Amino acid sequence: MTDAPNLRQAALDYHAFPKPGKLEIRATKPLANGRDLARAYSPGVAEACLEIKSDPSTAALYTTRANLVGVVTNGTAVLGLGNIGALASKPVMEGKAVLFKKFANIDCFDIELNENDPEKLAELVCALEPTFGAINLEDIKAPDCFTVEKICRERMNIPVFHDDQHGTAIVVGAAVKNALFVAKKKFEDIKIVSTGGGAAGIACLNMLLKLGVKRENVWLCDIHGLVYKGREVDMNPIKTEYAQKSDLRSLEDVIGGADLFLGLSGPGVLTPEMVQKMAPRPVIFALANPTPEIMPDLVRNVAPDAIIATGRSDFPNQVNNVLCFPFIFRGALDVGATTINDEMKIACIDGIAALARATTSAEAAAAYQGEQLTFGADYLIPKPFDPRLIGVVSSAVAKAAMETGVATRPIEDLDAYRHKLDSSVFKSALLMRPVFDAARAAPRRIVFAEGEDERVLRAAQAMVEETSERPILIGRPDVIERRIEKAGLTIRLGETVDLVNPENDPRYRDYWETYHHLMARRGVSPDIARAIMRTNTTAIGAVMVYREEADSLICGTFGEFRWHLNYIEQVLGRDGKRPHGALSLMILEDGPLFIADTQVHLHPTPEQIAEIAIGAARHVRRFGLEPKIAFCSQSQFGNQGEGSGKRLRAAIRMLDEGNHNFCYEGEMNIDTALDADLRNRLLPSNRMEGAANVLVFAHADAASGVRNILKIKGGGLEVGPILMGMGNRAHIVSSSITARGLLNVGAIAGTPVTEYG
């Protein structure tokens, strides 16, 4: 375990290097010459200024305001550190801005103000309205935070959201909603005992009332004991609303029969003896940080069936505001909301709670390896790195804003909006839409050779949910069922997915006899055929496709590409079908780029290069794109007589002799292919406009190297490889593929074989 001094130094180094702080400002427009400068600043900038003066709503079009949040604090209640002042709070506010950007692509300025008078602080915040699309108040002590927020909400025409209050309340609301679902209890029936009369605690109680809890069933305690009618010590109007008419005075006095303990106070407040007095199947939210009101193991000792949440990441059910604030602001900003109202907050709660009850995403599972992410007592709310949060929660918030009349820029198509949000985290989503649409329109049976792999199981789950395809898994049923249960998936063998058990399947004899028939004159005896059909899942899948018991095979999650290719060629390489090449789609920040041939031909002939280009053009059109194919080499338009350029020029001549309806050019360097200005200087008569979107190489080493550099260093997301020439009957993926990648290849395989080779 890392000791405290090392942890402290590591945290300081993180903030100091390679440059101080966690934020920087980057330009979104080019500023490379005098023309750019004249548009960005004087005189061109005046045009944008005049448009905004004429119509203030156009600020959302000509400036960053509609995507800019101000994170504002005076540093009077920072984390568990207390009143450390505005300057010392800056690392926290920078961190908050980083979370906005990471989880919802919202830009932020952090603003730390030396002002402790709440009314004056509110005045300063209100004066910032022209700069921001929304304000996130942060780490302002109670009760000042209530005053600041009230004034700002009344005077400002943009959302003002005190995250310590409402963000906590929303996440607590979602977690309590699901905890009661698990415990089979209802909001209107439960007794709540809460510790902590600060901003977060009161906001949580207010939200629970909106969800159906009865005020008379809420017992609020603070450091002085029960908040009761007539108490004068440390009271304010907010606490007074929860004062009970009672002779009881302490937490221990009121905890009996409580269904929910809600702690936002300090360590050790709740004892095991108090837990024993609570109602059966108690729900305990001990949210003090870093040490909760009671440690989960102490609860388990006296109430093994308790449902527990904390504010810590090393226990299940971490109540973390990052589940809320990026996504509620995303929805609010996108519709130009003038405020964040209760309906938007409840929509946020419902979205978060529903997502936890759904199947866990493969991306969240990868980010939290080793954790059980199945809905239940230990998984009440989604993990922050679940990429579905932005689509589910932000679209629900936007919808609520429009329905309640606070949206100034309503969204016409909410489904399209949600797809756009998803595509911001699933980089392949937008590009893959036409492929998925085709897959939904034509139900096909996709067989996965490595059916026991968790990535395959998650992909099969997503296929059942998102397409009309029927997954077939090859593997041992007991192993698959255990892994389905562990992953919290809802697919069921024989119901939503089919199974082939290599160890015991009634079709075994049919399969080995088919394989022997195909391979009898290639040295395969009946004994070898029997052994292969017991042990080689790729061969089994290929036989299934050959026998028309499946439409397409996906394999390769482990093992070497050419090993899998050997069995696919043996079984399916007939009737004019043979591998022409492997095509990888790389999704980059500035758009898609296809690379071929990365796997099949190590040193392709001119004829094979021409086939690769024809196949690539056909497949690129599946994604709704028009192919522009560049033949890439060290040689440039004939300046080298030998080497790869010679084979590429021969391939181009073959294409020129045919009647092909796609653009191609070469041979040329990669930079020439991607830079139209450079290409036009070198060969003004070239036949390609703009940048190429397909790079074809004459060496597999070159193609594979470019593909891997783009993936590892360029941040590219790979879709594929797509095996060309096999009539869409088989695809061999790479061993590093993700569940999302398998789903994408499954959608590609789900297109009818008659359309693409």
Word description of this protein:
The active site is at residue 96. One of its GO terms (biological process) is malate metabolic process. NADP(+) binds at residues 78-85. Keywords: Metal-binding, Multifunctional enzyme, NADP, Oxidoreductase. With 757 residues, this protein is of the alpha/beta class. The chain folds into five domains: 35-158, Malic enzyme, N-terminal domain (Rossmann fold); 166-315, 3-Layer(aba) Sandwich (Rossmann fold), CATH 3.40.50.720; 322-425, NAD(P)-binding Rossmann-like Domain (Rossmann fold, 3-Layer(aba) Sandwich); 443-455 and 469-572, Rossmann fold; 579-725, Rossmann fold (3-Layer(aba) Sandwich), CATH 3.40.50.10750. Helices cover 43% and strands 13% of the residues. Strands 7-6-5-8-9-10 form a six-stranded mixed β-sheet, with helices on one face. The chain has a six-stranded mixed β-sheet with strand order 18-17-19-16-15-20, with helices on both faces. Strands 13-12-11-14-21 form a five-stranded parallel β-sheet, with helices on both faces. Helix 21 links the parallel strand 12 and strand 13 (498-500). The two termini are 55 Å apart. Residues 753-757 have low confidence and may be disordered.
